[in-house]
Specification:
Largest sheet: 5 strands, mixed
Number of helices: 5
Helix content: 25-40%
Strand order of the largest sheet: 4-2-3-5-8
Distance between the termini: 29 Å
Strand content: 25-35%
Radius of gyration: 15 Å
Number of strands: 8
Order of helices and strands: HEHEEHEHEEEHE
Shape: globular
Length: about 160
């Protein structure tokens, strides 16, 4: 799904969302130059795989948070982790680097990706800001709605403390 197809998908399910259009951003430092309506809800997404290339994970945390992959491995009982390749990202989730998003699971036809969302997104506003499968916009959703989308699609989802 591309950006417009994601919006159609959300509209078809009567899911509330807001859109912030912006220049293409490829990492979190660039997004700081964009005026965001909910900066505290902006998400950073890491697409990683285990050392055997059998399991793929999407880790979603608040934008200013650091993720220690060794600590994540220990807490979530995974094999050693490293960043997945650009080819894996394109093949599995149909995304390019800089556009990684939980909505990319809508392109994961085999439901290979296990999604881990930081519990902090349930705090305060309950909102989360993610790319709509393209890095030229941020779509703001209720975290619970995003979790429902992931579960409905069939990907494994865990709400975790990171």
């Amino acid at each position: 799904m591309n950006k417009s197809e994601v919006y159609n998908y959300l509209n078809g399910r009567n899911i509330w969302y807001e859109i912030t259009e912006h220049e293409a951003v490829y990492h979190m430092a660039e997004i700081s130059a964009v005026m965001l309506p909910y900066p505290e809800a902006d998400a950073k997404n890491l697409f990683v795989r285990d050392d055997k290339k059998r399991n793929y994970y999407l880790i979603t945390v608040k934008g200013d948070k650091r993720v220690d992959l060794k600590e994540f491995k220990r807490k979530n009982n995974t094999r050693p982790l490293s960043f997945a390749s650009e080819d894996d990202l394109k093949t599995i989730m149909g995304l390019i680097p800089g556009a990684v998003t939980p909505l990319g699971i809508l392109n994961d036809t085999d439901c290979k990706v296990q999604v881990f969302i930081d519990k902090e997104f349930m705090d305060e506003s309950g909102l989360i800001g993610v790319h709509p499968n393209e890095n030229t916009a941020t779509v703001w959703l209720r975290t619970e709605d995003l979790m429902s989308i992931i579960k409905e699609h069939g990907n494994e989802l865990r709400l975790v403390e990171i």
